[in-house]
Amino acid sequence: MNRRDWLRLSAAGAALPFIPSFATRRSNNPIRLHSNENPYAPAQSARTAMREAFSETNLYAEPATYRSLESMIAAREGLRPEHVVLGAGSTEVLRMAAMAYGLSGGEVVTGYPTYEGMEESAKSIEARVHRVPLKTDKSLDLSAMDMRTTKDVKLVFICNPNNPTGSICDKEELNDFCMEISKRCAILVDEAYYELVDHPRYSSAVPLVKAGANIIVSRTFSKVYGLAGLRVGYALARPDIAERLRTYRTPMAVNIMGLRAAIASLNDERFLHYSKTQLETGRNQITAALRDWGHEVVESHTNFVFFHLGRGIEGFQRSMASHGILVGRPFPPYLDWCRLSIGNEEEMTQFSDAFPKVMSTSTR
Fold first, then answer.
1. Model pTM above 0.85
2. I want to staple 235 with a disulfide (CB 3.0 to 4.6 A). Which of 85, 127, 182, 325 is the partner?
3. Which pLDDT value is given to residue 62?
């Protein structure tokens, strides 16, 4: 696929006109297609809020500012503010949960591969982690996770959509799993890519939180809102569980710039629609291109795709880096697969130009 083909696909697939004030064109190298970042963010409203917050950066964030964001999140989800726990990105939410349930010999069950934040946090406190391999379609194996959840397990981690594969859990299967397992232990459902999913088989676990189940949902402003560098995430949980998590939260973990940007982003429905549309268009286009090139691609519901490279990922990483493009790291046991984040139009065009050249040469 050359630049002309990519631009033709973009023109055919884009649902919205290009909005210059929203787009981020990176002039620095290399091109970052390895960390699932949002190249179209932050929103202009978030940038304005951050500029206006400059005069506050010498001060600690007021508790009222925290409460304002918590109240906004709660209202959007049909919950009360006491259901919401802010953290420095959803990674801190996972760390809080690992501390709350993994100390004193608590064991953790997780899919494999999946987002490593939970496993890393659990291992840092010497909690035992049980990895359950994915199914052949690269989705989480809930039946196997059920079987692995013994009386010693205190927390089960579900990443939905899953990272690095982009797959989702069937909503009915996940609901049944959560209703059963939550009688034995707590479940954390990581919904970092929730806003990007538009599929009838998918459902958030928030209704289970509303029903009072032993469920924690983690979300982030890093992906669709593009605030990854500001570190703003949150947990949604029953008030008693939320209070348990707060015990392990870093005091004033979210900085004033992040708080102001998150509040502005939540109010900006226009940017949310724009961001989702651009990322979905890019995802669909690169999926079609990779399949045309003969590569298997897992159906993704995120801002990245996971595809069968057919050769060692580490050699491919080095070769793409020589073209100024960073791609995803190894995810054992899928060492001949690649996770590719969705960049902006120019970045994806450069990837599409470099990819056939790299694949036509050895990647030892």
1. yes
2. 85
3. 86
Angle at CA 83, nearest 5°, toward 210 and 242?
115
pLDDT in tens, 229-260: 999 999 999 999 999 999 999 888 899 999 99
Distant-in-sequence, close-in-space partners of 249: CB < 8 Å, separation ≥ 6: 85, 86, 87, 92, 96
Bridge partners, residue 153, by sequence: 107
Q: Are 224 and 332 in contact (CB under 8 A)?
A: no
% residues pLDDT > 70 (the chain): 91
- Amino acid of residue 72: M
- Signed CA dihedral, 329, 334, 340, 341: sign only: negative
Q: How far apart are CA 292 and CA 307, in angstroms?
A: 12
Q: CB 311: neighbour CB atoms within 10 A? A: 17
Q: Say which residue the tokens 């029953």 belong to.
A: 238
Structural tokens at position 236: 């949604």
By the 10 Å C-beta count (0-12 exposed, 13-18 middle, 19+ buried), 298 is classed as buried
Residues belonging to the chain: 364
The alpha carbons of the chain give a radius of gyration, in whole angstroms, of 20
Question: What span, in angstroms and rounded, lies between the C-alpha atoms of 145 and 356?
Answer: 39
Number of continuous H segments (helices) and E segments (strands) in the chain: 13, 11
Which helix (H) or strand (E) is 349 found in, with range? helix 345-359
CA distance linking residue 89 with residue 192, whole number of Å: 10
With a cut of 50, say whether residue 22 has pLDDT above it: no
Q: Are 266 and 253 in contact (CB under 8 A)?
A: no
CA–CA distance, 256 with 236 (Å, rounded to integer): 21
**Alpha-carbon gap, residue 81 to 260, rounded angstroms:** 18
**Mean local confidence (pLDDT), 176-183:** 96
First-residue to last-residue Cα distance in the chain: 24
